[in-house]
Every structure is written in structure tokens, then in C-alpha cells.
Design a protein that fits this description.
Layout: E1 3-8, E2 11-19, E3 22-27, H1 29-33, E4 51-53, H2 58-61, H3 67-77, H4 84-91, E5 99-104
Antiparallel strand pairs: 1-2, 1-5, 2-3, 3-4
């Protein structure tokens, strides 16, 4: 299961996880308690409940580049166009806009 920290304007807002049934996003309690907390998307208002979806949430899928820039990423990383989580982790660490995505490295035990 791959996971990523989701930052909103450089503030850690939540965790996006790839699950067996799709995707899960949950806001961090510390972020929800912050007076500067803003939703990462209008379709995902601030909530202490997790959001789940069989497909990557549009708020995150929309960060993935399109056109020639996507072609460059696909060619250089040997990733399938259908592997949206890999594309998100590869291309969206430093996006234009309020959101950024940073992979959480799982430690081998």
C-alpha cells in the first residue's frame, strides 16, 4: 500500500493511501484543529471522517500533467498511464497551485 503526505500551501493537511479497494484520504487531526485549515478540494470538505473512492479523487488526479509533459514522464519512468498513484507520486511533489504530494517512504522491518 503506497501512501503520500498531502500538503495544502506547505502545511501538512492529510494522508492519501492506495488501498486494495481504491483510494482513501483523511485529514490529520492537527490540521483540522488549525485555525488556518482549508479543504484540499470543495468536493472534500474538512471532516474527521476518511474519504474513500474506487478511483483517484479528482482533486489529486487533476494534478497529474497532461499532453507532452505526461508523455515525457511516462517515457522516462516506465509507468503505465493507468497507474495514477505512481504518476501522482512522480510528478506532483512541486505542483503549481496549493497542493503538493510527497510519498511516504515505508521502512522495511
Amino acid at each position: 500500500m503506497r501512501r503520500a503526505n498531502i500538503f495544502y500551501k506547505n502545511q501538512l493537511a492529510g494522508i492519501l493511501s492506495e488501498t486494495d479497494s481504491g483510494y482513501r484520504f483523511e485529514y490529520l487531526p492537527e490540521y483540522l484543529a488549525s485555525e488556518n485549515a482549508q479543504p484540499v478540494s470543495l468536493t472534500m470538505p474538512l471532516s474527521n471522517l476518511a474519504y474513500e473512492s474506487p478511483v483517484l479523487f479528482p482533486a489529486f488526479d487533476g494534478l497529474i500533467p497532461e499532453g507532452w509533459l505526461l508523455d515525457v514522464a511516462l517515457r522516462n519512468a516506465d509507468i503505465s498511464y493507468l497507474d495514477r498513484m505512481s504518476l501522482l507520486l512522480l510528478c506532483c511533489k512541486d505542483c503549481i497551485g496549493a497542493l503538493s504530494v510527497v510519498e511516504i517512504q515505508e521502512k522495511d522491518e
